[in-house]
Amino acid sequence: MIMKIEREIKMEQKKTFFQKVKAAGPAAVITSAFIGPGTITTSTIAGANFGYALLWSVVFSGFSLIVIMNMASRLGIGGRKNIIEGATDLLPNSNVWKMFIALFIAVAIGLTALGFEAGNIIGATTGLSDILGIEVWLAGLVIGILSAAAIWFSTPSIIELIMKAFVALMGIIFLVTAIIVGPDLGALFAGFIPSVPDGSLVTTVALIGTTIIGINLVFHSIAATDKWDKESDIEDSKFDTNLNVSLGVVMTLAVIITTSAVLFGTGTEVNSPIVYAQALEPVLGTWARSFAALGLVLAGLSSAIATPYMTGVIFGKVFNWKSDSINPKLIAMVAVVFGTILAMQGQRPTQIIVFAQATSGVFLPFISLLFVLAANSKKLGKFKNTTTQNVLGFISFAVTFFLGMWTLYNLFF
User: Fold this and answer.
1) CA triplet 403, 41, 211: central angle to 5 degrees?
2) Across all residues in the chain, what is the average pLDDT?
3) CA diameter of the chain
């Protein structure tokens, strides 16, 4: 019997690349969530103001995201617990601790989701209004309806399929433009050496904060538990995480490279995600604005679907709603309606994006710490963190803690 199980595991491990891609899913939702208007705006600011110098921060944030998401996978698949359950088990006999974890997760995720969703829908609205030449209120209404419909009428598997398509399309658009502009390869590679030029600390914080988001981490622990249930599935989850996060990192790097090559040193002020279009004008001419606007619509709409969807799923676990309850979708609709109203009013996304990134940055280190602690539970057995994984996890925590507190300091002082 044991030999039979071992043979089955070996057969499952011998999957082709395309079979692994087909089995992927949750991480595509996460990548679609963090490649939104906020990432485009922040990356454009980084490229226009500091050239290639901050490329390293994107690689660091992507690596940190992979480290913590893989902890989430082991906790979910090996331990059969999401982070809410795993964190509660740190003090299993304390009702106060259990209530604190539930309240902390709900507040952190709720506030972050509202901020990011507003930025997502406003960004997509900006792109759609620019492409079709329609009124902002109408474009906002269209994006809101599309987002709400995708969430309300879709199943998790359909959401994953939609997000895979969005990630593929965005990847093509952003990567092709980065190649077309012909970047300075010497300066580009130098950007992977860590440095913080004068005046760039806030932008560095924003680049990391727009990639590593608490919602994504909590959702992944839930999605991994729901999607996979065998020990051999951990490899599928790792592949899913490594592939999709790497694609997200490449797309973010592509936006910085494009704007660095064209806008750095020109004194361009980045007050909207559509400024990215200016970086394409030298090579795409009159098509530049439409091409950039299309990328903005895809990024905004994918994030506008993924963020509230993940928020609803998380709230469902926090409050132990039944699997067939419509409450998670109602929670998602709250975020969509909030963002749609602001978009229809013509609100500018930059301030809202800054608020969302600041909120995310403040809560992120504590969520990261919960993952590191939960992944050290003896109940995980061979799936608990190794020494190396702990070191990497605590480095991620330390950096995000410093950046989060620095963000808080800049908000109030």
Assistant:
1) 45
2) 85
3) 69
Query: Exposure of 202 by Cβ count < 10 A (0-12 exposed, 13-18 middle, 19+ buried)?
Result: middle
Is 309 exposed, middle or buried, given 0-12, 13-18 or 19+ CB atoms closer than 10 A? buried
The amino acid that residue 82 corresponds to is: N
Radius of gyration, alpha carbons of the chain: 21
In the 3-class helix/strand/coil scheme, how is the chain assigned residue by residue?
Answer: CHHHHHHHHHHHHCCCHHHHHHHCCHHHHHHHHHCCHHHHHHHHHHHHHHCCCCHHHHHHHHHHHHHHHHHHHHHHHHCCCCHHHHHHCCCCCCHHHHHHHHHHHHHHHHHHHHHHHHHHHHHHHHHHHHHHCCCHHHHHHHHHHHHHHHHHHCCHHHHHHHHHHHHHHHHHHHHHHHHHCCCCHHHHHHCCCCCCCCCCHHHHHHHHHCCCCHHHHHHHHHHHHHHCCCCCHHHHHHHHHHHHHHHHHHHHHHHHHHHHHHHCCCCCCCCCHHHHHHHCHHHHHHHHHHHHHHHHHHHHHHHHHHHHHHHHHHHHHHCCCCCCCCHHHHHHHHHHHHHHHHHHCCCCHHHHHHHHHHHHHHHHHHHHHHHHHHCCCHHHHHHCCCHHHHHHHHHHHHHHHHHHHHHHHHHHC
Torsion of CA 26, 30, 32, 37, to 10 degrees: 170
- Sign of the C-alpha dihedral, residues 204, 43, 340, 322? negative
pLDDT over 90 percentage in the chain: 42
What six digits make up the tokens of 53?
């110098």
Which residues touch 377 (CB under 8 Å, ≥6 apart)? 79, 86, 89, 90, 384
Whether the CB-CB separation of 110 and 308 falls below 8 Å is answered with no
Distance of alpha carbon 117 from alpha carbon 213, whole angstroms = 13
Residue identified by tokens 């901050």 is: 54
Calculate ∠ Cα 177-43-118, nearest 5°. Answer: 110
**pLDDT of 20 strictly over 90:** no
pLDDT in tens, 23-74: 666 777 787 777 778 788 888 899 999 999 999 999 999 999 999 999 999 9
How many residues belong to the chain?
413
Residue range 381-412, pLDDT digits in tens: 889 999 999 999 999 899 888 877 776 776 67
